[in-house]
Specification:
It is built from two helices and no strands. The chain is mostly helical. It has a domain of about 35 residues. Helix 1 runs antiparallel to helix 2. It is elongated and about 55 Å long. It is a multi-pass membrane protein. Keywords: Cell membrane, Membrane, Symport, Transmembrane, Transmembrane helix, Transport. This is Alpha-ketoglutarate permease.
Length: about 70
């Protein structure tokens, strides 16, 4: 999927960014929803990134049998 020279950054940066955005804001958003009386919305807030990740995963090309770039 990524050339060897950027493979670690290509995997690590998006992972770190999503963990920071959704994992970092989850306690705040959960508390906010509860204070506003919408505590049932929190699971949907967490399901949204899961749905987005599933769409990305399903659209990724298969690269198992391709020649590796050097």
């Amino acid at each position: 999927m990524f050339p060897p020279r950027v493979r670690a950054a290509g995997i690590g940066f998006p992972y770190s960014l999503t963990v920071a955005v959704f994992g970092g804001t989850a306690p705040y958003v959960g508390t906010l929803f509860k204070e506003l009386g919408y505590s049932g919305f929190f699971p949907w807030y967490m399901a949204a990134p899961c749905l987005g990740s599933s769409v990305v995963y399903l659209r990724l090309p298969e690269t198992a049998h391709k020649q590796l770039e050097r």
